[in-house]
Task: structure prediction
Amino acid sequence: MTDREALGCWEVLDRECVADASPYLKLHREKVRLEDGRVIDDFFTLEEPDFAVVFALTRRGEAVVIWHYKHGPGRVNLGLPAGYVKDGEEPLAGAQRELLEETGYTAPDWRHLGSFSVHGNRGCGKAHVFLAERAERTAEPAADDLEEIRVELIPRAALWEHITKGDVATLGAAAGMALGISASGEGRGE
Amino acid sequence: MTDREALGCWEVLDRECVADASPYLKLHREKVRLEDGRVIDDFFTLEEPDFAVVFALTRRGEAVVIWHYKHGPGRVNLGLPAGYVKDGEEPLAGAQRELLEETGYTAPDWRHLGSFSVHGNRGCGKAHVFLAERAERTAEPAADDLEEIRVELIPRAALWEHITKGDVATLGAAAGMALGISASGEGRGE
Result:
């Protein structure tokens, strides 16, 4: 066990692109020097665009969620409005755009709940998680995603059951819902 | 917008391995047919081992967390005991092993909080998230991970501040903490 202050970083000694599907994905083989001096010749990392995830609640405390097929888990599952942040776009603007495009909802109150690397070892871009409150439907959804989407309103208190029974299949949606539930409960005696 | 029942799955028409770093990682280029019939020639997916993540609480309500460098975010950050599930190992057994190896803690009460694909589009293996309660330190940590680790006990109520101020850098740790906080608060009037 080490003192926190003594923890060091790895050093990248060399980096080679072994698969390039820009702008969506680049796989790199890195030669890295660990904190203890050991050198690893083939540590793989993945470069991908960041994305934004939105936990939106209506005034009545319903979460704006979506049912959609996702190819990672390979099944139809319960997720959150989310999508890649565009070049030059702020994560918050990307979150607002994705919420509107995928669900037709807009909201006056936004809060950043954190930005997290999707993959602890490989990177894979960051997930920027946002809470949107007092969301209202103000337009028709107009997403041009690869997946078809069904929007549903689910009371915040009922989401936990969907999570525990396996309806939520991706880590990003699980994190967004759990963080959103915690953050929106603050200061309400919950 | 589509009825939930009408949502379909994609069909994989062809699949080619474009980078093989087994057993840790395999990158595939897939030719897929979407729900609406369109065919995409180059959708990339990643095959990786599943891993287990543990949110462990002591009898006094302290979370057993770790400080460590992770190469995905590229910095020292606050995470949870976690690691790859071995071939033929049950996810729960992997979770118990990782908790013991990384922190020296064991626990009598375990609960599965969900299993989630790390990456909604690419797969990247599943994160199996567990809550362990009444954890006690019963051994010396003996991890042989690439990263050095510092174990810390943080009161469950103080974790939220660490999350919001950016100490938690990976989606797996954020999901594990937020799910664990919600699940361990159930039935306690919280």
User: Anything to note?
Assistant: Chain A has three helices and eleven strands. Chain A touches chain B through 79 residues (CB under 8 Å).
